[in-house]
Request: fold
Amino acid sequence: MRWTRGLALAGCVLLLAACVGGPVRRVSEPSARIQQLTVRADGSWSAELRIENFSSIPMRFDRFDLALSLGSDEAGRLQGTPAVSIGPESADVIAVNLRPSGAAKLAVADALASGRSLSYTLKGSIDATPDEKKQRNFAIDRSSALSPAPGLPGVLR
Reply:
């Protein structure tokens, strides 16, 4: 009986010792996508870039440089230095201005006029600093689609 009690006590001590280290600090690749694209009256665009932190710790997003392609047409580059902290497993939206290429303007105008979706690709990198540690560079390669937003002229989501 004493042997069983001693074994149970040793098991409890080992379990408590395993908890001392605290939560796991995992750094995962972030993601970026366009949440909304708005065509302005002057022909420029406003892109709402959603940056997602999949890490278990906060990360400060210092810089991004992403090439935007719509279908097979290069639209331009989304660049910025937001210096925004995003909590663990959270996201934030950054507004970015863009002067698109002529072919990209036509592709968006056609998608808006016909009410159809438009595929896009983001390729580039994001620089982020995990919880006050050394800054890291993360490669981004994301493909998705945008569709006209009902009731919002000139807006794709």
